[in-house]
């Protein structure tokens, strides 16, 4: 069953959420602070996070920013703040929905179901991507790529570049197309930084398998990746 992480410092609200979600068949885990939640999300998979904005250690907004550095798990913000700017900020930093207190537990459970249904195709894609491809294994949910069964210490940009190349083995991607994969406009003067990222990626791959050369350079064109063993 889908596994939901509840991050809420008020026990009465958390109890209401746990009861409503478990009544719908969800598995729940409750923590009171963002730090503990982030550690959990790095170590075990969850299908969705319900995240209070007003937490005692760091705000839910800041917690979501940190979460998005390593995971795309769906997030619902739960807050008493009803200003439009708060809702806009919450959605812009990566939340999937925004629920105002006081709330209807049944409505919140329905929102959880709707989000999980919407991301189901992405989850299926992630499962497929998690299958071995040559010596690579891509985990889109955790922003991780394993090479020869070793986790690569990738930055966010390095992950996006390698995941893009692995998504279409053998295809030659131009620097402009790779910039698009990073979400960077080509006119931002960033093109040559792609070369630097590729150099760093190759160094990290060689650290695992010195003889391997999966990333190929096509002079004047761009880069491709081979999955051949």
From TrEMBL:
It holds the Pfam family Response_reg. GO terms for cellular component: cytosol; protein-DNA complex. GO terms for molecular function: cis-regulatory region sequence-specific DNA binding; identical protein binding; phosphorelay response regulator activity. Keywords: Cytoplasm, DNA-binding, Phosphoprotein, Transcription, Transcription regulation, Two-component regulatory system. The modification 4-aspartylphosphate is found at residue 52. CDD domains: trans_reg_C. Residues 3-116 form the Response regulatory domain. It comes from the Bacteria. Residues 127-227 form the OmpR/PhoB-type domain. PROSITE patterns: OMPR_PHOB, RESPONSE_REGULATORY. Residues 127-227 bind DNA. Its main location: cytoplasm. One of its GO terms (biological process) is positive regulation of DNA-templated transcription. It is found in: Cytoplasm. This is Two-component system, OmpR family, catabolic regulation response regulator CreB. It comes from Microbulbifer donghaiensis. The lineage of its organism: Bacteria, Pseudomonadati, Pseudomonadota, Gammaproteobacteria, Cellvibrionales.
